[in-house]
UniProtKB/TrEMBL annotation:
Residues 154-163 have a biased composition (Basic and acidic residues). Pfam families: p450. Residues 154-182 are annotated as: Disordered. SUPFAM superfamilies: Cytochrome P450. One of its GO terms (molecular function) is heme binding. InterPro entries: Cyt_P450, Cyt_P450_sf, Cytochrome_P450_Monoox. Belongs to the cytochrome P450 family. The keyword Signal does not apply. This is Cytochrome P450. It comes from the Eukaryota.
Length: 245
C-alpha cells in the first residue's frame, strides 16, 4: 500500500498519523460539508441524464457510480471540477484504480509475490506500476490545478481590495482584518488545508506529505463510495417498491 498511498492517514501510524489527523480534521466539519449540497445535487442530475441516455440498455453501474463518486470528491474536497461523468477520459482513472486494487488484493493472498524485488520484475508487478502511475499523474494534475485556481482567486481578491481602498476617503485608515489570507483558516476544504500547510510553513508538512494524503483520500473517498452507491442501486433494483418511494 505504501507504494501507492505513501504515508497517508490510511497507512501511517504514530506521530505521523497524529500530525495528519490534527491538520485535516477541521476540513470535515459539518459547516464545510453543508456547503457541498449543491454540487451533490448537480452531479446527481447529470447521473440521471447519463442513465436516460442509455435508453434502457444494460450499463456497467459500478463504473457509472465510480464516475459520480469521482466528481463529488473532486468538486468538494479537492475544489477542482473534472466533469468525470461527461468526460470519458476520466474513465481511465476508474479502471486504473480498480485494477491496482485487484492486483494488491491478489498479491496479499499469494506469499510468493510478497518479495518486492521479484514481484516488480513480473508482468503483474509492472502492470501495478503502470496503473499506479496513471492514478498518481491525475492526482498531481488535480493538485496543480487547485494551486492555479487559488492563485487566480488571490489575484482577483487583491485587485478588488486595492480598488476598494482607492475609493476610500483619505481620512479613513485601511485595515487588513478582512484579508482573505487572515480569515477562514479553519473553514478550508481538504486540499486547500494541505496546500496552505505546505506553503506557509505553519505546520510541519512537506510536499510529499501532501501528495500522500491526496492519493489516500482520492482512493478512499472514491473507491468506498463507489462500492456503497453500486450496492445501493442493486438493492433498489431488487426492491422496486422502495425505489418508487
Amino acid at each position: 500500500m505504501h507504494f501507492w498511498l505513501g504515508q497517508g492517514l490510511l497507512t501511517a501510524c504514530g506521530p505521523r498519523w497524529q500530525k495528519s489527523r490534527k491538520l485535516l480534521t477541521p476540513s470535515f466539519h459539518f459547516n464545510i460539508l453543508s456547503r457541498f449540497c449543491d454540487a451533490f445535487t448537480d452531479n446527481s442530475l447529470t447521473l440521471v441524464e447519463k442513465v436516460h441516455e442509455a435508453g434502457g440498455v444494460s450499463i456497467d453501474v459500478f463504473k457509472l457510480m465510480g464516475l459520480i463518486a469521482l466528481d463529488n470528491l473532486c468538486d468538494t474536497a479537492m475544489g477542482v471540477k473534472i466533469d468525470a461523468l461527461r468526460d470519458p477520459k476520466n474513465l481511465k482513472y476508474i479502471i486504473a484504480t480498480e485494477e491496482a486494487t485487484h492486483t494488491m488484493m491478489s498479491r496479499m493472498f499469494k506469499p510468493w509475490l510478497w518479495n518486492d524485488s521479484s514481484f516488480y520484475m513480473l508482468s503483474i508487478g509492472r502492470k501495478l506500476r503502470k496503473d499506479v502511475d496513471i492514478v498518481n499523474k491525475i492526482n498531481h494534475k488535480i493538485i496543480e490545478k487547485r494551486r492555479i485556481i487559488r492563485a487566480l482567486k488571490e489575484k482577483e481578491e487583491q485587485s478588488k481590495s486595492e480598488s476598494e481602498e482607492s475609493q476610500l476617503d483619505d481620512s479613513f485608515e485601511s485595515t487588513d482584518s478582512n484579508s482573505s489570507t487572515g480569515k477562514g483558516k479553519k473553514n478550508l476544504i481538504f486540499l486547500d488545508q494541505l496546500i496552505e500547510a505546505v506553503e506557509d510553513g505553519s505546520f510541519p508538512f512537506s510536499e510529499q506529505d501532501m501528495r500522500d494524503e491526496v492519493a489516500t483520500f482520492m482512493f478512499e473517498g472514491h473507491d468506498t463510495t463507489t462500492s456503497a452507491l453500486a450496492f445501493t442501486v442493486w438493492l433498489l433494483g431488487l426492491h422496486p417498491e422502495c425505489q418508487e418511494k
